[in-house]
Amino acid sequence: MRTVLLTALAPLAWGSTYAVTTEFLPADRPLLTATLRALPAGLVLLAVTRVLPKGVWWWRSAVLGALNIGVFFALLFVAAYRLPGGVAAVLGAVQPLLAAGLAVPLLGEWVSRRALLAGVTGVFGVALVVLKATARLDALGVLAGVAGAAAMAAGTVLTKRWGRPEGVGPLAMTGWQLTAGGLPLLPAALLAEGAVPALTATNLLGYGYLAAVNTAFGYWIWFRGIGRLPATSVAFLGLLSPVSAAVIGWAALGQALTALQLLGMTVALGSTVLGSTLRGSAAPARRRAPGNAEGEADRSDLPLERRDRGQSTSATA
Asked: Is residue 287 a part of any domain in this protein?
């Protein structure tokens, strides 16, 4: 349970992104914001850990960095700029369902009725919290929202599937992914949005918060949780992000909360608890010979219960 609570701090922190973006950052710079969120944090973590990928982990880090960071951040901001925030949040809430579907072929975690019920109920609860009657739909925005949720779901499942190289901790893995995901965003931001504008002290404070708290710390505990919990259970914790955003909007920005929104929060929180306490039912798998061509211990095809022995048990106790 301690690991679940610690991992939940990541989506709770991510819920502050909207308030920080609107109150502290320059307008109409989504790709710049995505870049400054990911790349500085990744480079700092690389400098701190002083560990670089080896062998297959160069391309694996690139894939995970693209799915969890680069592609996800870019699509997230496209959806946010083309859709009302509530619609974008509801589209993001389908991530647990997508992760559950991907976990079947990639992890052997079978989807239970309880997981499906929690996922559908969670989407409904988020919709109550964030949707308004005047919400409009934009085809490209909807596509970006769903694709972004799919990218994050695939990244979560593949992070669980591949694990970590022998002797490499989650902090180093976080640095690899943030750097790999942030580097392609830099030229994209310069080409699409032009040169970086003059930044005020308020802007720098906002970017610093996003890079340090939302990203470096948030993704470190998120990837740590993926290593210790079933991938589907971790994905359900993402439902906390829109709930956190609504609470921060009420507490810090003076936004009103209606009875319907409070009901939606209760439903979403219940779905999060139900989904995050699921234990993945893994299919039998063969044990590989220890080590591989790169000299790392490859445990990706071992049953999840054995792969995370001594970790997932304590995490969900």
From this structure: no
